[in-house]
## 1
Amino acid sequence: MKHLQTIYHLHPAASDRVQQRLAVRGIVARGRELLLLYTGRYDDFSLPGGGVEADEDHTLALARELAEETGARDVDILRPFGLIDEFRPPRGDYDVLHMLSYCYVCRIADTLAAPQMEDYEIRNRMEVRWLDVDAAIAHNEAVIQRCDAGMGLSIVRETALLKLIASALDNGEL
């Protein structure tokens, strides 16, 4: 898969214990509108997707995540879009989290079922929204500019992805 970007929230040292996490993210477009998640806790927009379980195929993981988070059905992966990797602060018994986000262009059924979000997603006030990619970028950039204390780190990755998607849409590549 094409490498899109590496994001450093911190630079790992050679002696750091690095935990790797694999994730899949789905790009579902209707013209310039994207199927996105709005997270009230962080006031940001992101692509639907999430962690790949041990020995889980990306196709199955993405179908599962899209169904859980958005209610998407009949998920068809059309092609890979690219990979973003990022180095993040630890959330466990390690020094650095190395997050690998594999992004795929997808097609789904015309109607969404009810999402089956996890408890933390409900607590974070996540909502499914169709939104113009440029509006999502502008919103996330305004949040980044304000540097709110509660801002999550994923907004950097998601905004970079949204810009790459907008460029692909502009060039007729999506």
Note: The helical segments are 58-70, 119-123, 133-146, 154-170.
## 2
Amino acid sequence: MDYKKAGVDIEKADSLVKDISRMAKETYIDGVIEGIGGFGALFELKKYKNPVIVSSTDGVGTKILIAEEMKKFSGLGFDLVAMCVDDIVCQGAKPLFFLDYIAIGKLKEDMYLKIIEGISKACKFAGCALIGGETAEQPDVYPEDGFDLAGFSIGVVEKKDIIKKIEVKKNDVVIGLASSGFHSNGYSLIRKIVKEKGLSYKENYGFGILGDILLTPTEIYSPIIIKALKNYRKHIHGIAHITGGGIEGNLSRVLPNNLKAIVFKNSWKKKAEMDFIIEKGEVEEKEAYKVFNMGIGMTLIVAKEKQEEIMKFFNENSYKAYLIGEITEGNGEVELR
């Protein structure tokens, strides 16, 4: 009896290391001392006077099951990186490096490399290094075609530049950046609707093949927000990544207790696929805004006098920006109108 007969192919995993290392090295940035290959990856902080490390971890969730259904895996890497780097930028941090964890029932080379390639491309887009990771072949824990993904991102910000709730002021405004779709939230509900309403992932319902649209990669906002912070740091008072919990659940996390955000629901263009899923699933509006991002993937609270200039900046850089709300006296909550 050997390990391979038990379901774990060490030789196959080892043979893929060269491909992984090649893709990872293409993401390396200044500061990487040693990446994939050692027991621990090494990264040197440079040019910071009082650096504060910011970290985030996340996964892709049951969006994985739609990727399995469609046999399309490359976008999952973008999802994984985006969910982490777009979290840490909310506190003003620049992503430095990323690590992945892939647990899989049986290692399949083509699928595996597509996922890693997606992670690598996303890291290059985000300007951070894919510096390490772990692949765990776990027969019996996962079915042969089953797997799960987790990601870990580390960023840095000068202590004086950390974005804090106290900066948010009455009469500030809320800018929303358009999402690329559902991102990586709400897929358990989406899958239930598709199943119970007899929908097909392979069918075009007027906005594209449903499965392909649902696999649209999560938008990565961190590079453009880092640029915005260089230009408008004094005028950007809060940033909220719209993930699980929707606009209400996430924007409220950056509000002080004495203020509230009023968000106007008709101030941006909704996604056709979201309207379709909500209608087919007979999802109540309140529930929809709690589960989905509803077309807004990132929000920024900014000084009113700079709103037009900041919106112009995002729009000119191919990120659709909407003026979606305002800050008033309140109790730290978000009111949808």
Note: The first strand starts at residue 32 and ends at 34.
## 3
Amino acid sequence: MKIGVPKEIKNNEFRVGLTPGSVRELVHHGHEVMVETEAGMGISCSDEDYVRAGATIAKTASEIFATADMVIKVKEPQPGEYAQLRKGQLLFTYLHLAPDPEQTRGLIDSGCTAIAYETITDRFGGLPLLAPMSEVAGRMAVQVGAVALQKANGGRGVLLGGVPGVLPGKVVVLGGGVVGLNAARMAMGLGADVTILDKSSKRLAYLDDVFGPRLKTLYATSEATEEQALAADLVVGAVLVPGAAAPKLIRREHLALMQPGSVIVDVAIDQGGCFETSRATTHADPTYIVDGVVHYCVANMPGAVARTSTFALNNATLPFAIALADKGWRTACSDDANLLAGLNVHDGQVTCEAVARDLGYQYLPPQQALVA
């Protein structure tokens, strides 16, 4: 199979779909890999590194989209990219379609087959290709939140860890999944007062067992969520409904009741955000203020630590990329129900139930797409 890796063009996105090590593995399996020139510069990998791994270098992304059987990316294709996708071509990347009707329409119109990292599952019901970036984003959420809390950045002027004689900052984490666990871990590491909310009593019991009395756990009712958010210095939105738009947990009217200069970091922004006032921002302009509350809503947070993120992501994506290349997407998905769960769009039809429901498309079960 001919595999293409274009350079990412989203604002301040420095990750790349394949590392040189991943290229070498795919070439070893008999595949041809083409990488756009300087695609790996953001992770300190040169064109020469890719050539040594067995890749050829393309001068433009158009060359890749025109010739590749499978395109491997990190972030969702931008308008200039999905316009170049074609019928029968396989796209393997993060998509986050539910809050993005324009991209969804573009993929449908292209006729391509699009498999999304974020909806591939494992035998435990987890999301193995989302997990490494969720780990990064969760840890970064507290890091960027601490910076946003500084007075010069519009925040309350609170040091999360406090100092002797001064109470630490209060951090509230909404969601106890991978993002929430890692955010709580970082916040506790800084010495903050941390409370995590989740709707799963089993998950809360697990978090309590892992962290003990250092972490406060609370069942996530609407009342509890609002009460905790209003008293917080930093609120981390870490909720996820796989493939679907994130639920809105904090409404606009709540902001006026929050601490002036408090900060919310919406890690769920890729899926539309879990705060009513959230809108996607970029690393170039990451924050804005609504009713005195600082919002950090960067839609590609892990892109800021591109080298760590790319290598972590490739550890998870490479086995699936090899299966798709070796077998073709139909056989690979037939052999692996977890990979089949990643099929979001095929030949002009939506094959992810949550996306079809949220955006009003007719749903084609992915099992039917295999035999279509």
Note: The mean pLDDT is 96.
